[in-house]
Specification:
single chain, alpha/beta, Rossmann fold, Fumarate Reductase Iron-sulfur Protein, Chain B, domain 2, four-stranded parallel sheet, about 50% helix
């Protein structure tokens, strides 16, 4: 059977640019098969070809070839969750996530947005990556939570409890990214990982100068601003890299998929390309680290029913694998294996490949679609009658918690509860 790949003839404005050359290669890999539509969340909801990967690829091809571009083009690209489920499905290896980043940036420049929408997006990329702004606003929302309407109150995470961090005392050392919103929403996640690693002879440390991974600004089409966040993190981590740190560990899979792509995103920066490539090579999701150390973990694990910790008696867990973990990083089964070895019973989750609707700022900018995806995801997660829902990304955690009465925890915290 012959393979029909997209033919392209890019316009002068982009043809010879690094982005144009990259987009051209990605477009030409597409064979129009349409397998991607079967796993696209927005196509399943809306049934519109232009709200699926194949249709959006045609829109971007027209854009790059100098065709007409309008607010309608922008709308269809905005509706994309960048969940990258289509990449998992695609038999041709089309790097759709990278293509849509390039396409959105070009549309942003050529179409623009109303003043109100620009202001709203500017506020998001200013507040969310900045704990000095985000945390006080979060705290105000938490104080007001008891008097807010139910639907609004559920969107504000309850105040997390800070837990102690073990002293760095081991020869083996790893870095962890604190990130931007996670320390405010769920400050116990990284300390839980630090305590697990401490028990198996690894010290976990954080570079004070490192902050937001850059994903928020980058995916809001403030790409140069996003790259600056990335450069700042490279600078903050580099002294530790030179000292021989083993890995840079990510407890938020959304940050992990971004940092793993620093090498690609900064490859045209002569000052940072080599360092960024090294940073990406060292970056691991927490599940990769702990799965590699599972023999040491098994020696620590005890049946949760034998402990006095009430949380450790939770047996039935529904695990939501974030898109950034299973599609972006292509990590599947590691968390489930670790929880299973710790004595938790994993319940079945139908359509586990589908997005929960969080997707960074998507739940704020596309609330209607996000809400429908959340309702479907909560229904799937609750269908196996779990006692708790676990996930691997702070955005998913907060978003899913807004749609269910079950507790939603990071899987690392559950794993920690199984150790004496």
């Amino acid at each position: 059977m012959p393979i029909f790949r997209l033919k392209t003839n890019l316009a002068d404005f982009i043809r010879d640019t690094p982005e144009g050359k990259e987009a051209n290669a990605i477009l030409r890999a597409c064979v129009h098969c349409g397998f991607c539509t079967a796993t696209c969340p927005t196509y399943q909801l809306l049934g519109d070809e232009l709200d699926g990967p194949r249709g959006r690829i045609y829109l971007m091809k027209e854009l790059f070839e100098g065709g007409q571009v309008s607010a309608k083009t922008q709308l269809h690209l905005d509706r994309c969750l960048t969940c990258r489920a289509c990449e998992t499905t695609c038999p041709s290896g089309v790097r759709y996530g990278r293509l849509v980043d390039i396409g959105r940036n070009v549309v942003e420049q050529r179409v623009g947005r109303s003043f109100g929408r620009r202001l709203w997006r500017s506020a998001l990329k200013t507040v969310i990556p900045n704990p000095a702004l985000f945390n006080p606003l979060l705290h105000l929302g938490q104080l007001a939570r008891p008097v807010l309407p139910g639907a609004l109150a559920r969107k504000i995470p309850r105040r997390g409890v800070r837990t102690p961090w073990p002293a760095a005392r081991h020869t083996r050392r790893m870095l962890v990214l604190n990130g931007c919103v996670q320390p405010g929403i769920a400050p116990s996640i990284n300390p839980a990982l630090a305590r697990i690693l401490d028990r198996i002879g690894i010290s976990l440390v954080a570079a004070r100068e490192a902050g937001c991974c850059g994903a928020v600004a980058y995916h809001l089409n403030a790409q140069q601003e996003g790259l600056e966040y990335m450069r700042r993190n490279v600078d903050a981590w580099w002294p530790y890299v030179e000292q021989g740190v083993e890995a840079i560990v990510m407890t938020a899979s959304g940050c992990g998929v971004t940092v793993k792509e620093y090498g690609e995103l900064l490859k045209h920066d002569p000052r940072y390309s080599a360092k960024a490539e090294k940073i990406s090579h060292l970056t691991k999701d927490a599940s990769e680290i702990l799965f590699a150390e599972r023999e040491a973990l098994e020696a620590l694990c005890q049946r949760t029913t034998q402990t006095t910790n009430s949380e450790s008696r939770v047996r039935r867990v529904a695990f939501h694998s974030p898109c950034t973990l299973q599609h972006g990083q292509q990590i599947r089964g590691a968390v489930e294996a670790l929880l299973g070895a710790a004595g938790f019973q994993l319940t079945a989750v139908p359509d586990a490949h589908l997005c929960c609707g969080s997707a960074g700022t998507y739940s704020i900018l596309q609330p209607s679609l996000s809400r429908r995806l959340l309702e479907n995801k909560v229904s799937a997660l609750e269908s196996g009658s779990p006692e708790v829902i676990a996930t691997a990304n702070i955005g998913c955690l907060a978003h899913i918690q807004s749609g269910t009465r079950l507790p939603v925890r990071h899987w690392i915290e559950l794993l920690k509860s199984s150790f004496s």
